[in-house]
Structure formats: structure tokens, C-alpha cells
Amino acid sequence: MSNAIQMPATGLFLLGLSAYLYSPLRWPALHGRPMALGEFANLVLGSRFRGALHWDAWLTDPERDLIVGGPRTVLELESKSQMD
């Protein structure tokens, strides 16, 4: 890879990581103690949201759409558009 491509790519990569690098610096002001390595790993990996994010949720849990007021199925959406 040439330097003309490698330098901007490296800069953009580091810019993307900067939010994760800022979090441990800000943590003591919010929580009164330094951030532990496990807490940092949980932040980066999104462990908090693991239960809500499933690839097959739209098939197995139709009630999820009701939370945001969306249609439960594509068939319902089509039947509503045909009624109008």
C-alpha cells in the first residue's frame, strides 16, 4: 500500500478509535474511580445491548415492532395500504 493511501487510512482509523480512547479519560469524572479493563471491554463490545440485538428478531419476536409503533408483518402493511 502506498503512503498516499496509508497515511489517511491510518488517520481515519485512529479518529474512529478516539471515542473509545476518550471514554476511560472521562470515566473517573462520572463514576469517581478509574475504568477497569473489564468495563472498557464491555463498552467496546456492547455487552449491555447483547440481549436486544438478534439477527432473527424480526422473525421470532413480532412484538418488538409494537414498541416503536411499526407494523408487525409485511402482510399487515400491505393490507393497510390496500384499505386506503
Describe this structure in words.
- The protein has 84 residues and is an all-alpha fold.
- It has two domains: 1-53, no CATH class; 54-84, no CATH class.
- The chain has five helices and no strands.
Based on the model shown, name its key terms:
single chain, mainly alpha, 5 helices, 68% helix
In brief:
By secondary structure, the chain is mostly helical. It has helices at 3-31, 37-45, 57-60, 64-68, 74-83.
The overall number of domains is: 2
Which residue ranges are poorly predicted, with pLDDT under 50 across at least 5 consecutive positions? none
Q: How much of the polypeptide forms β-strand, as a percent range?
A: under 5%
Cα-to-Cα separation, first versus last residue: 57 Å
- Our count of helices gives 5
